[in-house]
Amino acid sequence: MEKENYDYKYIFGPVPSRRLGFSLGIDVVPFKKCSYDCIYCQLGKTTCKTISREEFVPVKEVMKELKRKLSRDIRIDYITLSGSGEPTLYAKLDELVSGIKNLTGIPLALLTNGSLLWDPDIQRSVKKTDLVIPSLDAGNEDIFNYVNRPHKDLSFNKVVEGIIEFSSNYKNKIWLEVFLLDGVTSIRSEIMNLDSIIRKIKPHKIQLNTVKRPPAESFAFAIPEEQMRTLAGYFKNDVEIIADFKSPLNKNYFTIAKEEIINLLKRRPCSLNDISGVLNLHKNEVLKYTDELIKNNTITSYDHNHTVFYSIKHYSGEK
At what angle do helices 59-70 and 93-103 cross, to 10 degrees? Predict the structure, then answer.
């Protein structure tokens, strides 16, 4: 892909996604401003835990960038409200969603932790989206507090009832992501707890995930592929395992960004923030590239003083 000589503040990608094809991300919430502090988060620990909604950025500036990006001849399968914080914290979500739907017919998805779907304003704001993917990582209060480490004003029952209420009123597709952790939700009794709630939510699809990239906490452990398949069989409904255990991205895409990351790491090991800042790439976008480079054995990752660093493992040209 040809690199565009323009700095986007709120738009990133498109990046390849197993779920959404080529997804163009929209990020309107400051880095790690979230209602949760999940132990498995690939972006690190939450720096501002909140449920207060704000207009963090002007809608008109986001739409200006989106129009510019859509004017290019590039493949976009979904426009995705996601990023480095919880997107439902954006107070102008209704205006943004309406603006996007009036601008383009490309399907619009919302990736959310689901913690604020009990809010009637948020329910109204996202009703025009084509797809909502909320998360459910726990089947009881104790696991919820351990895994998600929610804001003090969020209870397990409040969040679950909010997702159930939202799903009963939302007219379009809901795919529920269930993030499983070894030693926590990797046993049948916990799956049964989750499944009893999921049957009330009635999503169109259940998607199982586990740790793929360095998590916020070192004690958040991935579940092996074979065990994931066994756990999938415990759910009453059909499920899809979205944890990518094997397949790297198509080598023909994003070669410029990958080469820039490799050249940067040849000089010195770098953290996610280092790579994002130097190359002016969104952190979620960087993770896609580093994930592939780790899989094809080009780079490696390690923890130093509670920060994940990436370094060259070996390099012999583009894989």
Answer: 20
pTM reported for the whole predicted model: 0.84
CATH class of 11-241: alpha beta
| Cβ 235 vs Cβ 199: under 8 Å | no
Would you state the structure tokens that stand for residue 228, as one six-digit string? 């994931």
Interatomic CA distance for residues 316 and 298, integer angstroms: 8
In 3D space, the residue among 62, 28, 170, 172 whose CA is nearest the CA of residue 108 turns out to be 172
H or E stretch including 304? strand 299-304
Contact assessment for residue 231 and residue 208, using Cβ atoms and an 8 Å cutoff? yes
Task: Check if the beta carbon of residue 13 is closer than 8 Å to that of residue 23.
Answer: yes
Alpha carbon distance 289, 286 (integer Å)? 5
In the chain, the amino acid numbered 239 is: V
Q: Where are the domains of the chain?
A: 11-241, 255-312
Assign residue 306 a region (left: φ > 0; alpha: ψ between -120 and 50; beta: otherwise). left
For 136-161, write each residue's pLDDT tens digit: 999 999 999 999 999 999 999 999 99
Buried b (16+ CB within 10 A) or exposed e, 226-238: eebeebbeebeee
For residues 103 and 70, give the distance between their C-alpha atoms in angstroms, rounded to a whole number.
Answer: 10
CATH class of the domain at 255-312: mainly alpha
Tens digits of per-residue pLDDT, 6-36? Answer: 678 899 888 878 789 889 999 999 989 999 9
b (16+ CB within 10 A) / e for 176-209: bbbbbbbebbbeeebbeebbebbeebebebbbbb
Q: Are strands 108-111 and 11-17 parallel, antiparallel or unpaired?
A: unpaired
